[in-house]
């Protein structure tokens, strides 16, 4: 079993739930309080991934970046050296969904070999029929480096571990 | 106000007694209690009527009791007795207190008696029942009595309760415990609320013991409980009374600090003592260069630095490529992944926000420092305690540089898999730890360093000195050779010519009086210079020195003598007013030229007059002898002798050889003897005339016969002739 350390970043507009997703993934906790991330926060989670060849211990260094606002873009240097990225959008705010492409472009510009997974967060706040419609509109991206789109919920934990696992699997 | 009968009925209904057989007594008690309380309520208004009512109450009560008479058991009897006693107590009031006491005593006695009887007659179960049944009554009684007359009841019951409780405990300790347990916390709470001091007093003696016991049971419990508050407690204590805290901690902290300081001061001492060492000079120089005080440098060197951890981190991703941490017993190592990530984030932040194009060199926090060395794809973070010195940083840079040089490609390819990291990186980084570990050793091995330094300085002095001395020896040699050769030339030997060798040049300084001598000297020196590959620097000056007459005459005399020693040379020189006249005989013509030349070279001689003959003069005078006679007729030959003397006087450089010629008459032997005698006689005659005998030699032995050419007198064939010659010297 080999131990591999990888850096992944969470990108997205402010208040889409990047920190909450990480907290759910790393600590399996959730809080309704909104605390804006300042600068960057780094978390670590070790997971095991089995491929056809080997069982890998993946040390994920998860970089939780400050969400961008109209006045403050994401600092590109924090993205450097990341193997993968989870771009997070808020299903209850259409503007954040529309920004996914912009974030993907920024990430791929800095890490041309990087892999992206898209988390459409706060799925628990959206009724099923609306969710289906939104997934239809924002669920497909014509880019081989974008793995897929997951409706996630940090509150209920839906798809959170899965999206991290899928991304880890594709970057090793 | 309620009537007494009402009271009785209502209280009978309200009563919540547990057992039915004590109901009546309960009721009675209730009545009594209620009436008592109501009485006190109205006592201010209607005192007299109350008393009346009370008295009117009694028949009813009696009735009640009587109704149940047939059921009265032992306990009831006791209860009744007690009741009676109470009622009377309530009636009699304070004035009858004494009496009550007596009755009380009687009652107790009675009760005891009954109890005894009961224990004897009844089974233990009955007794238990009896006691159980008694408790509520006692409680009620107590209740009542407490309200009514505390003192008496207390006195009455105190002894019994003790016994009761004791017995109860003996019988059913668990039940009692359960019973008390329920109220214990609240009881304590209540007690604490009302009189905290008492509780405190009660608990105080056992507090320490109980903590001890708890520590024994669970070692960590107390420390865990207190731990979180310790900080606050200390803080508060410091706020409240700083001095006490200082006093308390002084022995500990004082010792720790003093121990540390002793080490530091020793180190400082050592450094100060070594002020005059190379190290000291180096420090002084550094202090001057860096613009800090020497003391600061000394302190920095004394305190030193300790490497805690070294991380090689991927510059972009912040992933750890290699890490080395000092193993601290009992302490967890640093979380390298997180630390590397945050360091990278801080670096990125600093690079983006503060000044782009510059690098973060170090992060200081208190006594700690993170020293950063950045390369293309990775950077090195050295976490150390204390101030790193220049040497250490130089070493870090060197090792980091080597790693980059050797493994830069592998590092740039790093993608998080630690197995791809080249293994030699780790030992290389460990060198930094070792280097730091050796710091102390190194300082102790400074004498060797000092020796090396000394050797170096000595070499620095000795090698050039050796070269210089070797060169000077060679130069001296050349100088000597030159001097000897210059001396060997006779005409130059009298002049002081000083050869010297400097910077590849052979310099000859001096003065000679003539161009010729100068050329001679130049020719000699040039030869030597060529042989030693030196450039010849001619500094010989020709000067027309007024030659000292003695030197000149000496020189002339010397040359004259020199030449006179040669065969065929007999000269006399005379120097007068810069002209030299040479007189005498030089038989060889060539020699005559060379002698002339030699003299003319003598400085100071402007003109040379030579007056020499290349042939010796002859003496015509012959001394004739009679036949067979060897005697000289001095008188006849006086003129001849005179002229011979004159000749010798004229040519003092010439000597005379006497030759005997015979007439050939007679035997050869006779003639030979005769010749020799004649020679001898003639010589004597000349000596007698004052001629220096050394100037005369006789050569009479050879047999010479006068060869007669023509007819002549035979007398003229016997003679001695004279032949001048240049005497060999």
TrEMBL record, chain A:
The keyword Amino-acid biosynthesis does not apply. Pfam families: Ras. It comes from the Bacteria. One of its GO terms (molecular function) is GTP binding. PROSITE patterns: RAB. SUPFAM superfamilies: P-loop containing nucleoside triphosphate hydrolases. Signal peptide: none annotated. Gene3D superfamilies: P-loop containing nucleotide triphosphate hydrolases (3.40.50.300). Keywords: GTP-binding, Nucleotide-binding. NCBIfam families: small_GTP (TIGR00231). This is GTP-binding protein. It comes from Waterburya agarophytonicola KI4. The lineage of its organism: Bacteria, Bacillati, Cyanobacteriota, Cyanophyceae, Pleurocapsales.
TrEMBL record, chain B:
GO terms for cellular component: membrane. It comes from the Bacteria. Signal peptide: none annotated. Residues 612-728 form the OmpA-like domain. The keyword Transmembrane helix applies. The keyword GTP-binding does not apply. Residues 1-24 are annotated as: Disordered. Keywords: Cell projection, Cilium, Flagellum, Membrane, Transmembrane, Transmembrane helix. Residues 1-21 have a biased composition (Low complexity). Gene3D superfamilies: OmpA-like domain. The chain crosses the membrane at residues 449-468. This is Flagellar motor protein MotB. It comes from Waterburya agarophytonicola KI4.
């Amino acid at each position: 079993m080999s131990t591999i350390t990888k850096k992944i970043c969470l990108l997205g507009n402010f208040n889409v739930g990047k920190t909450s997703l990480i907290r759910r993934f790393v600590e399996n906790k959730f809080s309704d309080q909104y605390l804006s991330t300042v600068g960057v926060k780094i978390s670590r989670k070790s997971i095991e991934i089995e491929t056809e060849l080997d069982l890998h211990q993946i040390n994920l260094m998860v970089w939780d970046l400050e969400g961008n606002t109209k006045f403050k873009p994401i600092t590109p240097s924090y993205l450097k050296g990341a193997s993968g990225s989870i771009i997070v959008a808020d299903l209850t705010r259409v503007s954040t969904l529309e920004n996914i492409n912009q974030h993907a472009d920024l990430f791929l510009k800095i890490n041309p070999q990087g892999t992206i997974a898209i988390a459409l967060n706060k799925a628990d706040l959206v009724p099923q029929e609306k969710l289906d419609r939104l997934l239809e509109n924002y669920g497909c991206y014509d880019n081989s480096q974008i793995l897929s789109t997951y409706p996630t919920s940090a509150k209920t934990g839906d798809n959170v571990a899965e999206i991290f696992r899928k991304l880890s699997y594709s970057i090793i | 106000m309620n009537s007494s009968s009402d009271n009785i009925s209502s209280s009978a209904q309200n009563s919540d007694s547990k057992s039915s057989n004590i109901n009546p007594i309960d009721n009675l008690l209730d009545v009594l209690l209620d009436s008592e309380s109501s009485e006190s309520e109205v006592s201010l208004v209607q005192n007299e009527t109350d008393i009346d009512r009370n008295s009117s109450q009694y028949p009813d009560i009696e009735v009640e009791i009587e109704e149940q008479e047939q059921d009265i058991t032992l306990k009831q009897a006791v209860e009744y007795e007690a009741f009676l006693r109470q009622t009377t107590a309530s009636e009699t009031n304070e004035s009858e207190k004494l009496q009550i006491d007596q009755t009380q005593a009687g009652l107790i006695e009675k009760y005891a008696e009954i109890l005894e009887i009961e224990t004897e007659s009844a089974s233990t179960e009955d007794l238990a029942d009896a006691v159980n049944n008694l408790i509520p009554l006692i409680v009620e009684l107590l209740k009542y009595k407490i309200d009514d007359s505390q003192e008496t009841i207390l006195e009455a019951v105190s002894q019994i309760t003790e016994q009761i409780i004791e017995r109860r405990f003996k019988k059913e300790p668990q039940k009692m415990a359960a019973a008390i347990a329920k109220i214990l916390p609240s009881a304590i709470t209540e007690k604490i609320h009302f009189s905290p001091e008492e509780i405190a007093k009660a608990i105080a003696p056992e507090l320490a013991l109980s903590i001890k016991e708890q520590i024994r049971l669970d070692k960590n419990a107390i420390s865990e409980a207190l731990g979180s508050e310790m900080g606050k407690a200390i803080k508060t204590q410091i706020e409240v009374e700083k001095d006490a805290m200082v006093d308390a901690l002084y022995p500990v902290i004082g010792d720790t600090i003093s121990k540390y300081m002793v080490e530091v001061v020793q180190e400082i001492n050592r450094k100060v003592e070594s002020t005059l060492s190379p190290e000291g000079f180096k420090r002084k120089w550094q202090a001057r260069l860096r613009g800090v005080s020497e003391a600061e440098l000394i302190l920095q060197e004394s305190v030193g630095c300790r490497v805690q951890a070294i991380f090689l981190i991927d510059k972009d991703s912040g992933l750890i490529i290699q890490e080395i941490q000092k193993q601290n017993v009992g302490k967890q190592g640093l979380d390298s992944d997180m630390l590397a990530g945050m360091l990278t984030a801080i670096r990125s932040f600093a690079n983006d926000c503060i000044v782009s194009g510059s690098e973060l060199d170090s992060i200081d926090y208190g006594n700690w420092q993170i020293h950063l060395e950045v390369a293309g794809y990775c950077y090195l973070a050295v976490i150390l305690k204390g101030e790193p010195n220049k040497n250490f940083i130089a070493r870090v840079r060197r090792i980091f540089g080597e790693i980059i040089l050797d493994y830069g490609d592998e590092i740039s390819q790093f993608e998080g898999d630690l197995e791809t990291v080249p293994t030699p990186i780790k030992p290389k980084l460990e060198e930094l730890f070792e280097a730091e570990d050796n710091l102390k050793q190194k300082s102790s091995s400074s004498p060797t360093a000092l020796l090396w330094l000394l050797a170096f300085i000595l070499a620095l002095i000795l090698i050039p000195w050796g070269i210089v001395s070797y060169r000077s020896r060679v130069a001296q040699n050349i100088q000597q050779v030159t001097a000897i050769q210059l001396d060997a030339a006779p005409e130059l030997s009298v002049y002081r010519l000083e050869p010297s060798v400097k910077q590849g040049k052979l310099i000859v300084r001096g003065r000679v009086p003539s161009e010729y001598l100068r050329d001679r000297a130049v020719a000699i020196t040039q030869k030597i210079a060529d042989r030693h590959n030196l450039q010849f620097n001619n500094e010989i000056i020709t000067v027309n020195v007024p030659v000292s007459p003695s030197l000149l005459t000496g020189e002339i005399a010397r040359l004259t003598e020199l030449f006179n020693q040669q065969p065929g040379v007999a000269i006399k020189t005379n120097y007068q007013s810069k002209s030299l006249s040479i007189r005498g005989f030089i038989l060889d013509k060539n020699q005559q030229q060379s002698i002339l030349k030699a003299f003319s070279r003598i400085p100071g001689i402007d003109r040379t007059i030579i007056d020499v003959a290349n042939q010796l003069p002859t003496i015509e005078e012959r001394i004739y002898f009679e036949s067979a006679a060897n005697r000289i007729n001095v008188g006849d030959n006086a003129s001849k002798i005179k002229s011979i003397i004159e000749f010798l006087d004229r040519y003092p450089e010439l000597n005379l050889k006497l030759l005997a010629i015979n007439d050939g008459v007679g035997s050869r032997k006779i003639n030979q003897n005769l010749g020799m005698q004649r020679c001898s006689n003639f010589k004597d005659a000349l000596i007698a005339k004052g001629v220096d005998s050394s100037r005369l030699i006789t050569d009479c032995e050879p047999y010479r016969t006068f060869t007669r050419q023509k007819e002549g007198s035979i007398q003229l064939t016997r003679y001695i002739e004279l032949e001048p010659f240049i005497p060999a010297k």
